[in-house]
Design brief:
single chain; 108 residues; mainly alpha; two-stranded antiparallel ribbon
Length: 108
């Protein structure tokens, strides 16, 4: 089993949440919303490209729009492999966090 990286997991979950509205900028905005951190678009497209190359996401093109200078959006959706990978990482997270109620860190 090849485990997803944390950003891959977050991106796949963002695609799942966005449904048929999942394109680059919307995915970035969802990642920013859930992490509370600023993400450059390139930091999203790198892992997104790997997820596509590894068969975890599928792409389709929307209609060209004048707002985008005649370019079309690339939309993403999870493949069966992507869903399987999310199930596996969810199971690993569940097991590793089992019986851990609250983390207490000592400040130095």
């Amino acid at each position: 089993m090849k485990l997803l990286s944390r950003i891959e997991e977050i991106i796949l979950l963002s695609i799942w949440r966005l449904g048929d509205r999942a394109y680059g900028m919307a995915i970035r905005e969802e990642v920013i919303r859930v992490t509370g951190k600023k993400w450059l678009l390139g930091a999203i497209y790198g892992p997104l490209g790997r997820l596509h190359k590894n068969g975890y996401v599928l792409t389709s093109r929307g209609e060209p729009t004048s707002e985008r200078g005649g370019r079309s959006k690339v939309f993403y959706r999870l493949s069966q492999e992507g869903i399987k990978a999310l199930r596996e990482i969810q199971q690993v997270n569940s097991i590793i966090w089992n019986d851990i109620e609250e983390l207490e860190f000592k400040e130095e």
